[in-house]
Write a structure and sequence with these properties.
- By secondary structure, the protein is mainly beta.
- It is built from two helices and eleven strands, in the order ββαβββββββββα.
- The strands form two sheets. The protein has a nine-stranded parallel beta sheet with strand order 3-4-5-6-7-8-9-10-11.
- The two termini are about 35 Å apart.
- About 30% of the residues are buried.
Length: about 270
């Protein structure tokens, strides 16, 4: 039996005459009639849509995106995907993109047309990483399980306000102070990172979160961060001393990160 489930925002999936703010698409590739999906989409406003496929391991490509020409946000985590060619169907005005890890390694040239992105979240994509540097409108960027010798690729991103580096490996953070708008920074579980002194030179920094950086034994002076309001230290067991000025800025790591607003794009 063919089945399709469409849920608009917090609605129940029925047609609505109002503007669609977000669209979540849940379907199994083997049972859906994509023409039915397209028919339902045609009945609603094309703006502010989000596509998030479920049962994602059943997909081997992104060709289904041709049925969603007006989405503004896309999240795809297809581990068994054989090609990224289908990402060409993503509209040039896409606002946010999240790509999960894949079994095979692919080039980011597949998304180089998305120069209007404001949010980008990548897991384990390193080939042609310089493509990220062409997306100069980015406001929020997350790299997960990505190994880089340095962060030079970020230098053109002068509008970047929030950057998360989670997992993976890098030893050089010297590019971070050159970003003109960086306010929120998360450095979590990064192998090989022992020197975080560059963080103390980010003049625009307001929020800093450090988590399980095992080789970091000391923190820099934050005199070069006059706007710094909050520091979160979690499982930083290698630290031999926490300066008093850092203790005054610490924030309970169990709470909601105060910089979360940077990740809420519309």
């Amino acid at each position: 039996m063919r089945t399709a489930r469409l849920a608009r925002g917090l609605g129940d999936g029925r047609r609505s005459s109002g503007q669609v703010r977000a669209l979540r698409v849940l379907f199994d590739r083997n049972s859906i009639d994509l023409a039915e999906v397209l028919h339902v989409l045609d009945a609603s406003s094309p703006s502010h849509r989000t596509a998030r496929p479920a049962h994602q391991d059943s997909f081997t490509d992104f060709e289904y995106l041709r049925y969603f020409p007006h989405i503004r946000h896309f999240e795809g985590a297809h581990y068994l995907v054989e090609s990224l060619d289908g990402l060409r169907h993503l509209p040039d005005d896409l606002v946010s993109l999240e790509l999960g890890k894949t079994k095979k390694r692919f080039s980011l040239r597949a998304i180089e047309h998305l120069t209007n992105l404001r949010l980008l979240d990548l897991t384990r994509f390193t080939k042609d990483i310089e493509v990220v540097g062409t997306m100069t409108g980015l406001r929020a960027l997350q790299f997960r399980s990505i190994t880089l010798s340095d962060l030079a690729v970020l230098r053109p991103l002068q509008q970047l306000a929030a950057f998360n580096l989670i997992g993976g490996s890098t030893k050089d953070l010297d590019a971070l102070p050159e970003l003109g708008s960086l306010e929120a920074l998360r450095l979590w579980q990064i192998r090989g990172l022992s020197d975080v002194s560059a963080v103390g030179r980010i003049a625009t920094l307001r929020y800093l979160s450090l988590f399980e950086l095992r080789q970091v034994t000391g923190l820099p002076s934050f005199a070069g961060c006059p706007m710094l309001e909050v520091i979160s230290l979690n499982t930083m067991n290698g630290l031999t001393e926490i300066p008093p000025e850092v203790e005054a800025l610490q924030w309970a790591a169990s709470g909601k990160h105060p910089a979360q607003a940077h990740w809420n794009v519309k």
